[in-house]
Amino acid sequence: MSTKVLPKTKERLNSLDTLRGFDMLWIIGGGALIEALAKVTEWNWMEALANQMHHVSWEGFRFFDLIFPLFMFISGVAIPFALTSRLEKGTSKTSLHKKVFIRMILLILLGFIYNGALKNGFSNMRYPSVLSQIGIAYFFAALIVINTTSLKARIFWLLGIFAGIATLQLFVNVPGFGAGVFTPEGSVNAWIDQRFLPGRLIYKTYDPEGILCIVSAISITLMGTFAGLVLRNKNFTANRKTIILIIVGASLVLIALLLSPVYPIIKKIWTVPFNILTAGISFLLLAIFYFIIDVKKWNNWILFFKVIGLNSITIYLGMRIIDFYHSSEFLLGWIANPLGNFSDVIIVSGVLAIEWILLFYLYKNKIFLKV
Length: 371
Description:
The structure is a single chain. By secondary structure, the protein is mainly alpha-helical. It has one domain (25-300). It is 68% helix and 1% strand. It is built from 15 helices and two strands. Strands 1-2 form a two-stranded antiparallel sheet. α1 (14-41) crosses α12 and α1 (14-41) packs parallel to α13 (312-321). The chain starts with a strand and ends with a strand. 41% of the residues are buried.
């Protein structure tokens, strides 16, 4: 882990940093702001939008269910730029193996910290975390890219992960429930987590970042590497790259929807249709951001998102450690309190402003948390 100046390379995509910032915005306060505005305005369309800022309770899909897999997809897109390019310049595979392994370990440790290891110790601790899932999935997706040279081999790996997860979730008999049961208690994910995952499970019977979820989520990162390969391909024009991303994305969304009546879309156990759906939407979002920012160069608006995207892990951990809401109340309470129901809009806007100013300070001083 280090803080350092990002290298200026021709291969760095502004669209990727911007999309990552757009993704993180909804976690650090964007979703809360939409909810506050919906409460004040009571507009039907705003209330419908606010409803998308919550995870579904189990089966189905909302926008907020996309946030985590989109981040993993983006990390996969970066793999060909960060690792394949080094292989082409002569960096040894052993060196890259070490690099991605250390990254995984650091993210697992940061995940422990996020879950309260420094506060409460390891007694009754929850070991899985968002950060550990990102780190482990990145590690295995990177290994596949480093050690395979053909697209066909990587597709076989992806299909193998899909087949393995589908077989377990659809056909393995769970004692007391049977096979193909998609409930919080009866899924094969729950059975595996209860028997093999140490520590506390966040939902008692299973963990959404549990063992099978992590394995399943490798597919999201791996599909991101395919998008990265398209964007690095010097034989494709920029317009052709955009079209390929759109076609792949739309096809994946269609496949997921066709599968969903028999194999449900469930984020909390990372079913295969959920992975395919979110990867498809991620392809489409990447195509839009890439075309607007890197092809058309309409990028006067991207600084706000880019500042967030370049220090995404910093602000994710920062939200856990620093009470930005209290800081906003302390600074803006005199304005917010007399405004009644509108006070939440002021306070949440203040949270976003304080977070962004902090990140902008790091950005201007070229301080970036690199893991």
